[in-house]
Structure formats: C-alpha cells, structure tokens
Design a protein that fits this description.
The complex is a heterodimer of chains A (about 375) and B (about 700). With about 375 residues, chain A is of the alpha+beta class. Chain A has 12 helices and 10 strands. In chain A, the strands form 2 sheets. Chain A has a 7-stranded mixed beta sheet with strand order 1-5-6-10-9-8-7, sandwiched between helices. In chain A, strands 2-4-3 form a 3-stranded antiparallel beta sheet. Chain B is built from 19 helices and 33 strands. In chain B, the strands form 8 sheets. Chain B has a 7-stranded mixed beta sheet with strand order 20-24-25-29-28-27-26. In chain B, strands 4, 6, 7, 14, 15 and 16 form a 6-stranded mixed beta sheet that branches. Chain B has a 5-stranded mixed beta sheet with strand order 5-8-11-12-13. In chain B, a hairpin with a 5-residue loop joins strand 26 and strand 27 (about 540-550). In chain B, helix 4 (about 135-145) crosses helix 5 (about 150-165), helix 9 (about 315-320) crosses helix 11 (about 365-375) and helix 10 packs across helix 11. The longest helix of chain B is centred in the C-terminal third of the chain and has 19 residues, at about 670-690. The chains are: A alpha+beta (about 375), B alpha+beta (about 700). At the A-B interface, helix 5, strand 1, strand 3, strand 5 and strand 6 of A face helix 6, helix 9, helix 11, helix 12 and strand 20 of B.
Chain lengths: ~375, ~700
C-alpha cells in the first residue's frame, strides 16, 4: 500500500477517536464507565484494537516508509492512551468505595400520623391553663335546660333558646345519674331533669362544677358545642369551645385581663396585646369581647383584621350574680370571671386557614401539614 | 341600628366626625359595624347642613333597647365626650320642639285598659290632618335609617320611633267605631287584616287595640289595614303605649311577624316615654305642616312605673373592676347616662335611681358595668388572681385519651374530627339495632342523628380521601358516641391501602386483618390493658373477618374488615377497609393510674427452641398454643408463631406451623437436656392431642 493511503488512514483514525471521545464526554461522569471500557478495548486491544490493526499494515509498506508510518501510529497510540487514562481517572473518582450506598435514594420512613389542628390548639390551651393552676374538665354534650340555659340567666323566653339556634333532641333522654347530689341547695327545680338539647356552650360545665364544689374554682372546660348554624366559611353546626371560670373572694375584671393576656402571649407570641370591648352576655356582668392585636399585621391593618388592627377571639366577663345564686354561691362573698373561646377561631388565626369547614373534612392533604 | 350622624348632632354637639365617633363608641359598648355615606337631600328648616354626614351602623346588644334610637345613642356620645345632651322640649325652637298638651280624661275619644298587666300605659292625642308626602328632610332622615317614607302622618310616627325609641301608631279616627279605644286580650279566633295585607287570627292573651266593634291593631306589633291613615284621612289619633316585652315577643313569634315596633317592645321600651312621644308627634305635625293637633292628651295609666333604686358602694365598683375609679368619675358617668345619683359616697354608698329607659339595670353590678365601660376598659391593669391551694386534678379522661392518641399517631394514623351528627342511613348499621338519639330540628337530613359509634366519621374520612385520589388512608378519631343510655368516649380507626412503609427496597403490602388486630392490641397495651379477640358478627363487618375485643372478658370494642355494602354506600371504591372501635371508657375506666410493680430483670439466660408442626389447617393458632402451654414445664416463658406455610411439600388441608419457644428458670441456668425434654413433651402432646406431625 502506498504511504499516502496509509497516512490518510491514520488521519481518519485520529478523527474517529476524537468523535468517540466527544461521545464519551457527553455522558454524565457516573455513567461513563461502560462506554470507557468499550472504547479502551476497541482502540487499544492487543488483538483486535484499531491501533493494533493499523500496526498490522506495517509489513505491506516499503521499508523506507515504515519508520515514518511507525512514528505516526505511535503518536496516535500515545494520544489515545493518554486520553483514556485521563478519563479512567475521572471515572475512578466518581466510583463509590466498596460497601457504600447511594445516599440520595429515599429513606425508609415508618409512617407517623399527624395531629388534627384543633387537637393541637386544645393541647396548647390545656397546657397554658394547667401551668396557671387550673383544672381541665370535660363534660356531657347532651344537656338539660337548667345547666345550658336557666342557671346561666337565660330564662324561658331568651332568644338563644329558639329552635333556630339550638338543636333539640327528638325525644328527651332520661336524666343521667349525677355523680352526687348538689352540694348545697340550688335554684334548680327539684329532681333530675330530662336531657333535651345539644349544649350550645361549654358554660354548662361551669354550673355542673359549681353545683358540686365549693369555691374557690379555677377551671377550663373544653369540648365540642353545637349551634344551629349553616355551614359557610366561618360557621359549622358543631365547633369547639374552651370555657374558663375562676371564682373566689376578690376576683376582678383586671384579673381576667391579666389571665387572657398571658393566654394570648402563649398562643400568639410575646408582645401580643389584648383589648376589652364592652359587650353583653346574660351570664356575665360586666361583659367584654376580647380582641388581640392582629397577628398578621401587628396592628397596621390588613385583610385578616379588616383593617382594624384587632382580631376578636373571645367573649368574657364577671360572673353574673344570678349565676351564683342559681348554684347556691353567695354573690356577696365571692366574685368570679368567665370566658369562652372558639378553638376553630384560634386555629384559623394561627395557621391562616380561610375556611372553617376544612377542620371537618379530614382531608389528609390538609391534616398532613400539621405537626405530629 | 343605623343612625344618621347629623341627626345625632341635633342632640349632642360632638366635635369629632362620624368615623371617630363610631370608633370611640365601639370601645364603650356600641360595636360599629360600618360607616355608610348619607343620602343627599334637604336639612331641617333653619338647620345648617352637616359636612361629611354619614350613616353609622351599630350592633346594639339585646340588653340595650334604649340605643335603638337617635337620642339613646346621642346619650352615649354625650357621656363619652362629657358633653351636655339636648332633648326635644317645649322651649326648643325649630324642628326640636315638643308640643305643650293639656291632659284630659277624655276628648273626642277615650281609652280603656282591660289588660293592665300587659299594657299598663296608653297615651293618645287627636289631630286634624292634611295627608300628603313629607318634606324632603323628613324623607331623607327616614331613608338614612332604613325606613321607607309613606305619608307625612305615618312618617311622623316613624320619625318619633327612630328619634326617641317609642314606637307609635296613627289611627284614622273616622274608621274607629265608637269613641273609646280599648286595649284588651283578643277573643279566641278573632281576626284582623294587618297593614301588610295579611289576615291574622288571634288568640288570648295576644293583645289588640280595638274600637267598639273589632280589633284595629295587634298591640305592640302592627296596625290594622281598616283604620290605616290614607289620603282621604282628615282626623287621626296618635297612639304611644307600653307593652310587656314577653307578651309582644310571644305574639310576634306566634304570628311570625317581626316589626320595628315589636323589636323595640320585646326588648323593653322606655316605661315612661309615652306622653312625651305623643307631644313630640304633635309638634312635628305643626313643623312639617301636616295638620293641627287638638292640643289635648289622653294619658291612660293603669299601673304607674316604680323606678328601680339601687345602692352602689365605691368599694364595690373598684373591687369588681380591679381598677381605681375616682368617686367623681363614677357620679359623672352615671348622671350622664341619666341615672339619678344621690349625694355622698359614704359607707352606705350612693343611692342610684335607674332611668325608665334602662330595663337592663337591676343590680349594682349593672351599674358597675356602666362605670367600667365609660371609664374605659383600656385602663384595666393586667393582674393575676392569687392561688391559695393546689389545683384539683383534671378530668381523668384527658391523659387517658392522650395516651391512646399517642399510640395511634405512632402507628401511622392521622387524627380526624367529624361532626357528631350523621345521616340516619350512615349511622344505622353501627347502632346494633338500638334506638338512636335523633334530633328534633337537625340542620339537614345529613345531620339527623347523633352518631351511635364514632366509626361513621372515620369511614367518611376514608371516603373523602379516596375520592380525592388518596389510595392509602389511615385515620382515627377519639370522640363521643351517643346512645339512649348515655355518652361513651370512643376511639375509632379506619385503614385502607398500604400496610407497611412504601419503599423502593421492598414490595408494598396492603392492610389485612392482622394489622388492625395489632393496632387494637397496641392501643390496649398503651392503656395498660391486654386486649383479646373473639370471633364475632357485626352487620357492618365482613363475616369471618370480624372480632370483638375484650379486656379480661369485658367487651371493649370490635375490629375487622368493613362490609363492602357499607363502604359502597359511603362512596368508597372497591378496596379493603379495616376498621377498629374501642370503647375507651370500658378499656380503661378512668380510674387507672396508681403504682404498678415492675418485674426484676431475669438473672439466668433463656434457651430458645424452634418447633415446626404439621397440623390441620382448620385448627386455630390459639388451640396449638394452648396445647403447648399445657404440656410444657413451668420454665416456658413464651410461645410465638414465626412462620406458617402451605404449598409445596405440605399436604392439602394441612399447614406447617413454626413456633419459637423460650424457656427460662428463675433459680438456675437451664441445661440443653432440660430444653430437649421440654420440647419432646410439647411435641408429643401436639401429636397426641392435635394429631400433629413434627417436621
């Protein structure tokens, strides 16, 4: 074969190697190993490698040309070996040590359940008041007229007793066995009362407790309550309330303010302030609605607080003397404060939940956003 | 209650604009709902237009009927700003005049009160009128406060109601039979066509204002159509009466008829305003050119009002509020609100006479509220009640439920909360045939009965999540179940889809009976109780995959696979759903707690031996275990299945059971020989009693 043809052949090999190298380099480093092995065998293999094939052409050349051809093939060989060695080093650098694992694979996580946000708020409120020395009570959800209305100074023609607002049982249930007879004479009608309605507030527990215990009283009662409200963004016919009651000699409205401020700071962060606005409830006198500084805008005014800078969170007041009379306490000897707060309202503010109905759909996409 | 700012200014010369007045009243007990632009139009004759006039909308609480009037709100404004309150009077000029009427026993008409307890006072005055449209300023004021102008005479009655809070009525005197107006109880079945054109049938003790023949108005609620003032009317009688709140409330509710008048009367109108209201209406007839009053007043009083007089001590004020309020400030506030305060804040306290427009004030505490809110709740310090004793224990159910909740969360169940009322058909399968607690007035049929079990809620939670594309659902709820004989605290759980941990390294497995069984056992252990199972049948569970749960032979619940028909009825796709319900009150009657002895650690090592037996596959695992326990020496501490195999090499109808036996003695190290002898005894008992073969 003439030397010129062979020279062209070597040049073609040069170009082909460059192309193969470019293909290899295009692969991600961690995936180059098999392609690199193939390249190595294809070019530098002793028997059938392309460089060995070229060298096999040597005997077909005139003796005078052999040296020049040999040098050209050697140059190519050195270039190929060097390039492959460089790539091998690179691949070796990405290879894991023996026994290593791919730490980017997903971990094996045993499934843990998520808390319901109302349950989290409830725990938080319980913890706050336990810390302040309160006992935490629960109570029956089906109530009688005395404990839900009458003893709370909501007499027979009070509008809240309307079928529009309160859900009544189709058939009254016979009175439950009370833990004990009331401790002292109360204003209740003699004998146990039939259970007729779903409690409309946890305030019913105030009465149950005071009937059975002498002052001082320091309690929170937590649980579901029922009102005949249609479902919308801010109403559900069942919701959760936390009721607080403190009774003793010399309890004042200022004590209520200090207590609620402490609660608000625990729930919404230090520096929260509270505001009392006079209001009306049949079972407290004086009565106050309580606002906290808007937790979104810190009072500057925003959509959440409707530009007022304040968020209403609960109703409260000093226990009405008629309530003390109903349970047989002496209104001349003790005073007390009471408050009732919706847990949904607190949860909606804390987590910026815009639709109260989400708390009752039990959608895991919602629940899984809350802690365990 | 909407109130026009410029109308307020008739009575109090407040320096602030409407928005600021509204803001300040909000902090004193009248919550501002909104500020709307005032309608354009005329102002009263001789009055200057008020720039930036506006309509303030207040949420007036049910105890403050006095604030359902311009003067009532003006009184609050005057108290907040410490300004004098003007009132319509005989001496006033312009549109604020009050007519000077001569009181007579009877005039062109007389009044007889036949129901003095329900209507103790009725004031009336007759006038000659020219009925036409009211002047623009009257129409504008009515419009602003949400009342539609009708004619000058009717508008005057509404004007007085809005201004002073006394609802009024005007009768066409020519349409009244006889010359005596009688307030009496309706006759049974007596009917009247009211102003809204509807025929109303009345019964005693509903009240009517009647002429000699028939009812002309439903007392305190609405006038009658027949004696309505019309364009042809030339003579009228104004009525201003006081009606017992409970009577008006009952009538209004019975007739399903709520009016501006009934709203004010049922909350309690001013007990002594009637003559003034009539005098004001008569003056306005003149002011607007609607006619000429006769100048006389028939003021029938069957029962005079006795004002409430209270004793208020300064110490009580400061003691209840927990803040200092100077005595002069107490007096200023009460006087500004219309209370008559006797001199001296000595030990006996002030003698305070309650004004006739404050039916809500009956006790010293009510006065303290007035003082507190006007002195300002913002001055309250934040203090703490002192503690003199350790708090009594909380409800025992709270820590118990928290323990159950922790177990369920750790087992991968998320916490659900559902409505306690459910659809009757959804509840029925879970009621066990017992009558349910149904509601008389549920919000809808989907909330008709109180759940007899907490399961319907978690089943619906599965349904909701499945329908929203979630294949794997684990939820639980701790809540109340309602039965005729009482409320029970129950834990319900539902599980569908993935049983283990979804991971690339291993195949997934769907939940089966043993997952839900294990869940029940774990909750039991968390509450300190060992739960055992017995085969059971429930209409809502798949037969053969259902068990009742027991603690020491006491039934405490149920677990198993939800019947496909029940799942289907709640919209759950064809997947296996396993459910569990535990009556927590039965598992751990809240009396738990107290000390429990912890066993000392074993001093000698245990020996473990595995045994494989080929037994009939109908034989229960419990029977195999029982046989082994009986045959083994006392050193057997546990026996546990670790494999069960059917297939190649195991004859049909048989199963290969592998058991791990652990032996240990308290007083020595067991020898291999002892273990071998024990295993031999176990195997031979199994062969003899169960027909087992050792493999």
């Amino acid at each position: 074969m003439p030397l010129d043809d062979l020279s062209r052949l070597v040049a073609e090999h040069d170009a082909a190697f460059d192309a193969a190298l470019a293909d290899l380099d295009a692969l991600p480093p961690a995936a180059r190993a098999p392609a690199l092995d193939a390249l190595k065998i294809g070019w530098t293999g002793r028997k059938s490698g392309r460089i060995a094939d070229l060298m096999a052409q040597l005997p077909t050349l005139a003796a005078a040309d052999r040296k020049a051809f040999g040098q050209r093939v050697n140059t190519l060989k050195q270039r190929v070996e060097q390039a492959l060695a460089e790539r091998e080093a690179l691949v070796a650098a990405t290879r894991r040590p023996a026994g290593a694992v791919d730490i980017t694979l997903p971990g094996r996580a045993p499934q843990l359940g998520h808390r319901h946000p109302l349950s989290l708020v409830r725990d938080e409120v319980q913890a706050i008041f336990t810390r302040l020395g309160y006992q935490v009570l629960e109570g029956p959800e089906i109530e009688d007229d005395w404990h839900n209305f009458e003893a709370l100074n909501m007499h027979a023609d009070h509008p809240a007793r309307d079928m529009q607002d309160t859900m009544y049982l189709a058939q009254p249930l016979s009175a439950r066995a009370e833990p004990a007879a009331p401790k002292r004479p109360t204003a209740a009608k003699a004998g146990p009362q039939a259970l007729t309605l779903l409690r409309t507030h946890t305030s019913a527990m105030q009465i149950r407790h005071m009937e059975q215990h002498d002052p001082p009283v320091r309690l929170v009662a937590i649980g579901p309550v029922y009102r005949r409200d249609s479902l919308d963004l801010t109403h559900t016919p069942m919701f959760h309330q936390c009721e607080g009651l403190v009774v003793g000699p010399g309890i004042t409205l200022a004590h209520l303010k200090g207590t609620l401020l402490a609660m608000a700071e625990s729930l919404f962060g230090a520096g929260t302030s509270v505001r009392f606005r006079p209001s009306f409830f049949p079972y407290t006198e004086p009565s106050a609605e309580v606002d906290v500084r808007c937790i979104r805008c810190s009072g500057a005014g925003c959509a959440v607080c409707k530009q007022t800078g304040w968020l209403e969170i609960l109703g409260s007041g000093m226990v009405h003397p008629a309530v003390f009379e109903a349970v047989g306490y002496d209104p001349g000897a003790v005073t007390g404060f009471a408050f009732g707060m919706g847990l949904e309202r607190v949860a909606m503010l804390k987590w910026d939940v815009g639709d109260i109905r989400l708390f009752y759909e039990n959608d895991l996409r919602f629940l899984e956003q809350f802690s365990r | 209650m909407k109130v026009l700012y410029s109308w307020l200014r008739d009575f109090v010369d407040v320096p602030d604009g409407p928005a600021e007045v509204g803001r300040r009243l909000s902090l004193r007990g009248l919550a501002l709902e909104g500020v709307d632009p005032a309608p354009a139009g005329d102002v009263p004759p001789g009055a200057a237009p008020v720039p930036d006039d506006a309509v303030l909308d207040f949420d007036v609480t049910a105890n403050r009927p006095d604030c359902l009037s311009v003067v009532g709100i003006a009184r609050e404004v005057a108290t907040v700003y410490d300004l004098p309150l003007e009132q319509p009077s005989a001496e006033a000029r312009g549109h604020l005049r009050l007519a000077a009427l001569r009181q007579v026993e009877r005039d062109s008409f007389g009044v007889r009160l036949d129901a003095p307890a329900l209507c103790p006072r009725f004031a009336g005055a007759a006038a000659s009128v020219r009925v036409q449209a009211s002047p623009g300023w009257v129409q504008r004021r009515l419009h602003a406060m949400g009342v539609r102008p009708i004619s000058n005479v009717v508008d005057i009655t509404n004007y007085v109601m809005l201004e002073l809070g006394q609802p009024m009525h005007a009768f066409d005197q020519a349409r009244l039979a006889g010359d005596t107006i009688v307030v009496r109880e309706a006759r049974p079945g007596e009917s009247i066509v009211t102003l809204d054109g509807k025929t109303r049938t009345l019964i005693p003790p509903q009240l009517v204002v009647a002429d000699a023949e028939r009812a002309a108005a439903v007392g305190g609620v609405m006038g009658g159509l027949d004696s309505e003032v019309s364009a042809a009317t030339t003579r009228i009688v104004f009525e201003a009466a006081w009606w017992l709140p409970s009577s008006v409330r009952a009538t209004s509710r019975a007739l399903a008829l709520k009016t501006e008048a009934s709203t004010r009367f049922e909350r309690g109108a001013d007990r002594e305003l009637q003559a003034r209201a009539v005098a004001r209406a008569c003056a306005l007839l003149d002011v607007v050119g609607a006619g000429t009053p006769d100048g006389t007043l028939v003021d029938a009083i069957a029962m005079a009002h006795t004002p409430v007089v209270l004793r208020l001590s300064h110490a009580h004020v400061e003691g209840l509020l927990g803040m200092p309020v100077p005595a002069a400030e107490v007096e200023r506030i009460l006087r500004a609100l219309g209370f008559v305060v006797g001199a001296g804040a000595g030990a006996a306290g002030w003698q305070v006479t309650v004004p006739s427009w404050r039916p809500d004030v009956a006790r010293p505490e009510d006065l303290i509220e007035e003082v507190g809110r006007h002195h300002g709740f913002e001055h309250l310090p934040a203090t703490f009640p002192s503690v003199h004793q350790a708090p009594p224990l909380s409800d025992r159910r709270i820590p118990r439920d928290a323990a159950a909740r922790r177990t369920m969360l750790a087992l991968g169940f998320s916490e659900a909360i559902s409505f306690a009322f459910v659809e009757e058909s959804a509840a029925a399968p879970f009621a066990g045939g017992a009558p349910m607690v149904a509601l008389a007035n549920p919000l809808s049929e989907t909330f008709a009965v109180m759940r007899p079990s907490v399961l319907p809620g978690v089943v619906d939670a599965v349904s909701h999540n499945r329908r929203h594309g979630r294949r794997d659902v684990r939820v639980f709820e701790i809540a109340t179940a309602f039965r005729q004989d009482g409320e029970r605290r129950s834990l319900a759980a539902a599980w569908t889809g993935e049983a283990g941990t979804d991971h690339w390294s291993g195949g997934r497995r769907d939940v089966d009976f043993f997952d839900i069984k294990g869940t029940a056992e774990q909750v039991g252990l968390g509450l300190g109780s060992e739960i055992t199972l017995q085969a059971a049948e429930r209409p809502y569970l798949v037969p053969g995959r259902a068990a009742s749960l027991h603690v020491a032979d006491r039934p405490v619940g149920v677990c198993g696979q939800l019947a496909p028909a029940v799942a289907d009825a709640r919209g759950i796709p064809r997947d296996d759903v396993y459910v569990l319900e535990l009556d927590l009150d039965a598992v751990a009657p809240a009396a738990a707690g107290g000390a429990r002895r912890i066993a000392p650690l074993p001093r000698y090592p245990a020996i473990v031996r595995d045994v494989s037996l080929l037994v009939d596959d109908a034989l229960s695992a419990a029977a195999v275990r029982d046989t082994i326990r009986r045959a083994a020496p006392a050193t057997l501490v546990s026996v546990r299945e670790f494999d069960r195999y059917q297939g190649r090499g195991v004859p049909a109808g048989k199963v290969s059971v592998s058991l791990r036996l652990t032996f240990r003695a308290d007083d020595r190290t067991l020898t291999d020989d002892e273990a071998a002898a024990a295993v031999a005894a176990v195997v031979s008992a199994a062969q003899r009693d169960l027909g087992a073969e050792q493999r």
